[in-house]
Structures are given as C-alpha cells and as structure tokens.
Amino acid sequence: NRDSASIIGGIGDVYSQNGHKLIRAEQLVAAIAAVNERRITFRAFRAYLACHELLAIREAADRVSKQARADRKRRFRHSELEVLLDGPDKGTSVSRELAALKAAGLLTFTESTIDAVRGAGETVELLGFLGSRGGSRLVPVPRQVLKFLARCTRPALAKTIVAYLLRGLALQRSGEIRSAGTV
C-alpha cells in the first residue's frame, strides 16, 4: 500500500521511530474547512483529531503485540474518545460530534473501525495554501500534539498549530522527518 508507512519502517500510518501519526494534508485541510464553514463544531474537529490518536494507539499496539494480527479484533469505544476530549472527569457524550463528522464526509466511527475518508478535501479552497507539495502528501503529526489538540479549547490556537504542521513538517522519502518547511 503506497499510503502506508510500512515501506519506510512503520506499520499502518504510524511512523514507528518517534511516535508520529501520518495524516494526509488534504484530510487536515478538509477538517479545518468544515469548521470554518460551520459544517462541524470545533468540538467535532477535536473529536476528529482524537480519532486519529485512537488509531495511532491501536497501530502502536499492533506493532508490539506478540498475538497474531489476524486473530485480533480492534474495538473503539466512545468512552475512550470522551476521555481524550474532556479528560476522565467530564464524560460528556461524543455521539453528536461523530454524527456531524460522518455527515460532513470526514470520518466514520464504528466499534470495529475508524475510517478517515480520503479525498474529503478535493474541493476545498484552502488546498492552495499547501503550496506545491499538494494535498495527498502525508504529514507526520506528533502523537503528543494530537492529544494536545484533542483537549485544546481555543480554536485559534488549534488552527494555528495545524497550519504549522501542514506548512512546517514533511516526511522525506528516506523516512526522516524534516521540520524546516515553508511556514
């Protein structure tokens, strides 16, 4: 699979050496555009990023587990997503946010899978801000940044961080992460 990090030493879409989750630039731009156009709430955007963190957790577990991957069934729970968004003490439901993400065509969340829709940003005007690198490239997002953004309650801060990720981080063909971008 060309989209997989396995060709450069990872499994799935997790860069194995230093805890990055590879996300397509067009997917991040489409999520930002959906927030700007008010098709989803900012909390739904945070849920979108938290879903990517849940995927990264499962992919990291697959790498280190001795149990055969074919025998294992992934299971995603709303309660895990709620903890990533609000912390362990709040526990508010995320069903509305997940329904909004599905309606916007960004992500589908089921108990067995999380599917971030590819090509969601094809018609988004913001793709022009990516420069010549294009929307199909993979952006190495540090997992700690995903956790921070999932809990961030300040939209301007979260959008700024995502813009810096899009313009400043790149994954070279050798598998190394380059942080001198076009910010």
Describe the protein's topology.
Layout: E1 14-15, E2 20-24, H1 25-36, H2 42-64, H3 78-86, H4 95-103, E3 107-109, E4 114-116, E5 138-142, H5 143-151, H6 155-168, E6 170-171, E7 177-178
Antiparallel strand pairs: 1-2, 2-5, 3-4, 6-7
What would your notes on this structure say?
The strands form three sheets. This protein has a three-stranded antiparallel sheet with strand order 1-2-5. A hairpin with a 4-residue loop joins strand 1 (14-15) and strand 2. Helix 2 packs across helix 3 (78-86). The longest helix is centred in the first third of the chain and has 23 residues, at 42-64. Helices cover 42% and strands 12% of the residues. It contains six helices and seven strands, in the order ββααααβββααββ. The protein has helices spanning 25-36, 42-64, 78-86, 95-103, 143-151, 155-168, and strands at 14-15, 20-24, 107-109, 114-116, 138-142, 170-171, 177-178.
Pick out the low-confidence regions: 1-12
Q: Which word captures the global form? A: globular
The Rg value, from CA coordinates, equals 16 Å
Kindly estimate the percentage of residues that lie in beta strands according to DSSP.
5-15%
Distance from N terminus to C terminus (CA atoms, Å) equals 30 Å
The DSSP helix count reads 6
The spatial strand order of the largest sheet comes to 1-2-5
Can you tag this structure with a few keywords?
single chain; alpha+beta; two-stranded antiparallel ribbon
